[in-house]
């Protein structure tokens, strides 16, 4: 047995006579209820069955799947799902489990069921990023009140352990910044655009045909999925409550082939990043107010940066901590098996607590830092303009940057041939500045008489 | 407070009157004893001081450093180390702590002190890879007997969370294979050789002048350090006891500039890998007996593989699991601050258990798989030969491979000019085969009348 049964966590396996009687071989048993039986749910059910002995050896108690709540029990299920376990009465099911696995997704009925499960003393493992990012504090409070575990490794970046490293491994350190490629669909799309030169529409279609994107890709391409994950990551990294609604969100729908080309020209690659960083408090640039900046937007990442090598539908989370330095966690961010792996890891961890007593980490929000508005976020811009090819234009453009307190790091001017006779392209990279100043600069540039058009505006991260 | 004090773990902070009295502000206190005050130890001491309030908020109890055991108290210490805490009586110190941090390293006196600490009911956090790889099971047993935690994230790959992911995150999955770049010194040396064409001696000197290598680099370049880490990783990944002595070990001392060049020619890079894999049981090639293969040796890794991008003194651990698929953990594998970060993460985790009751994961060795000899390890060879440039030589060489059951995947022949008139270079890449067969093939090749010399023999991984 992995754990000596010395603890007194409520609902301990060995104290669970009812379930104990249910075993053939006797020995402690933990009753597991599964809510939802889609791609992830059916994989979890299958693994609980197939790996039963190994999991029992690792937990120190047998995990008995006592029911699977579904909406349509008649529907045909994946192999390995015992039809006799299916029920439509989720409310009843959660009251007879030591451990509830929620993979329904969405806010309701998931929230009600998770709260009800904890009220009845069950520990909960969920993959529900939307629910955690929407109403996390309420769930944490319910877990504390009930003295049970609430685990959710699968909610962020699928099988990649990122919740546990942030919650536990780095808990003795000070996380300064997290840059995440946390949405596989958009990473696949941007990677396609980068490698094949395809435009957004074609790349999205390709992703759909390969099953990397939903028929309605809104949640991914508009950055909602990444924003929910950013909120969860920021909450864990900064011991501060951050909700999805607090996250500045820009998807990839405005990204053009020209943007991707501009990034390539600059020796960079375009990624949709979830960015969580501390501001002020001596860590940010002087004068920045203390708080956290949490945002999701496309950004240019230098090809040398470890995140630039994250291809296809893979995910990676890059962490900068004061002591640990730079860390990166890389792997498959979605899919039935990877997500089920993360769920089962939490199931075993939570089950071990039931057997051995005690609980894992619960919410830590003591720092309570304010979430700063996007305008205050310190970033760099990479702007491509088309201007009149005549003397004085560069000075005129440079003045616009100066007027808005944005300082230019490099500028490259190239005459445009063909139909664009008399025009030139200007590619300007700025130094760090507040986003508001840079945005205002771009606005002024667009209005400047020297400028024919602003063809690409990209933020730069990871330099 | 992060954890409600509902547990009954022995030596609970709130039950610790003595230490309780010691606080100014009152509230629960955990007494921390530090063994060793070198680069890591002094950093841990400094952080415990500097981050006192943050750590208290995360733990739910104040961490009070009650003593630092050193051999020479007179020696000048890093800033932030309170001289009044120094003591030479480590045996006494460990008896008055709730939590002992061991960063002395080596087998004795570390082992005796850790065992004594646990007998007295203290939880232990150690960075001592040598001790764990030498005598882990005895330490785990002592921790179980005492009902305390034994944590050691810092023992493998410094600040990179790898112990926790293997122990907890992937505990619901089946790990098939781990490839690790776990020694920063040798990775720096091989990276130098690859990028500058330097030979081994110069690269090692460079590493020494930059502080990446010890004056006596034996432990690193001969692979002892990596072997100890491989033993720990394999034990965690396969729920099986593996000792450093069980690990097949080849360092980088035999690596030549020619090997590095051969790798580059083949579109690969040379890395010293810690390789832990399941064999047989349906997972390995047919007929392979069930068990684990644990080895450390230089290997060619294709440039496209995520591990190939691990530059300089960085570390990375690449994990292949049945459900999770491919994962990689990347970061700084050594250094005072990164290692201290891992130690402090464990300190907080262990301290939370003292406050909240219960324990973390303990040893899981139920699988008890046999460690297979190197000869059975299934690998691929990349061999460079110089042969007589005459008809029939290729057939003769191919026959040698066939005779030993090693099948050739590709062969490239190029005439050698200059002094080597009448000679040609043959570069042969094999398919997978047991290491013994490939080694015997190379021996036979060296003895073959067709072969002038075997100039490079490299194993290939990650293809």
CATH superfamily of the largest domain in chain A: Dihydrodipicolinate Reductase, domain 2
Whole-number count of domains of chain A: 3
The amount of beta strand of chain A, in percent, is 25-35%
Q: How many strand elements of chain A? A: 17
Biggest sheet statistics of chain A: 11 strands, mixed
The N- and C-terminal alpha carbons of chain A lie at a distance of 49 Å
Q: What is the CATH T-level topology of the largest domain in chain A?
A: Dihydrodipicolinate Reductase, domain 2
Question: How would you describe the shape of chain A?
Answer: elongated
Regarding CATH, which class of the largest domain in chain A? Alpha Beta
Supply the CATH architecture of the largest domain in chain A. Answer: 2-Layer Sandwich
Spans of chain A of 5+ residues with little confidence (pLDDT < 50)?
1-24
Mean pLDDT of chain A: 90
Q: Tell me the structural class of chain A.
A: alpha/beta
Rg over CA atoms of chain A: 25 Å
- Oligomeric status: homodimer
Q: If interface size is counted as residues with C-beta under 8 Å from the partner's C-beta, which chains form the largest one?
A: A-B, 69 and 69 residues
Structure annotation, total helices of chain A: 15
Helix content of chain A: 25-40%
């Amino acid at each position: 047995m992995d754990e000596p049964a010395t603890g007194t966590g409520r609902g301990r396996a060995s104290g669970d006579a009812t379930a104990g009687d249910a075993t053939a071989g006797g020995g402690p048993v933990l009753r597991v209820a599964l809510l939802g039986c889609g791609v992830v749910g059916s994989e979890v059910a299958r693994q609980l069955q197939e790996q039963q002995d190994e999991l029992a050896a690792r937990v120190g108690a047998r995990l008995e799947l006592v029911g699977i709540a579904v909406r349509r029990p008649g529907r045909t299920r994946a192999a390995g799902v015992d039809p006799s376990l299916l029920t439509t009465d989720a409310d009843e099911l959660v009251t007879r489990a030591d451990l509830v696995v929620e993979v329904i997704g969405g806010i309701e009925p998931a929230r009600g069921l998770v709260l009800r499960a904890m009220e009845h003393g069950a520990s909960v493992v969920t993959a529900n990023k939307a629910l955690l990012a929407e109403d996390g504090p309420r769930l944490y409070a319910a877990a504390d009140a009930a003295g049970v575990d609430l685990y959710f490794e699968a909610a962020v970046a699928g099988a990649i352990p990122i919740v546990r490293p942030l919650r536990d491994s780095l808990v003795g350190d000070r996380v300064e910044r997290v840059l995440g490629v946390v949405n596989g669909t958009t990473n696949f799309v941007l990677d396609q655009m980068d490698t094949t030169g395809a435009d957004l529409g074609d790349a999205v279609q390709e992703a759909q045909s390969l099953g990397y994107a939903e028929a309605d890709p809104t949640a991914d391409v508009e950055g909602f999925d990444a924003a929910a994950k950013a909120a969860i990551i920021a909450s864990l990294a900064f011991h501060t409550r951050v909700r999805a609604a607090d996250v500045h969100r820009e998807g990839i729908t405005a990204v053009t082939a020209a943007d991707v080309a501009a990034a390539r020209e600059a020796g960079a690659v375009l990624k949709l990043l979830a960015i969580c960083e501390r501001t002020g408090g001596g860590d940010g640039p002087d004068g920045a107010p203390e708080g956290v900046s949490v945002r999701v937007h496309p950004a240019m990442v230098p090809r040398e940066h470890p995140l630039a090598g994250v291809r296809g539908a893979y995910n990676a989370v890059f962490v900068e901590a004061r002591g640990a330095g730079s860390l990166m966690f890389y792997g498959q961010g979605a899919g039935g098996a990877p997500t089920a792996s993360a769920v089962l890891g939490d199931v075993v961890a939570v089950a071990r607590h039931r057997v051995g007593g005690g609980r894992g980490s619960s919410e830590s929000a003591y720092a309570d830092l304010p979430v700063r508005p996007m305008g205050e976020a310190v970033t760099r811009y990479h702007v491509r303009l088309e201007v009149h090819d005549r003397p004085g234009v560069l000075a005129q453009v440079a003045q616009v940057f100066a007027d808005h307190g944005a300082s230019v790091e490099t500028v490259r001017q190239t005459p445009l041939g063909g139909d664009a006779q008399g025009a030139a392209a200007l590619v300007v990279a700025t130094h760090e500045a507040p986003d508001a100043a840079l945005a205002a600069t771009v606005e002024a540039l667009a209005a400047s008489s020297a400028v024919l058009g602003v063809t690409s505006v990209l933020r730069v991260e990871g330099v």
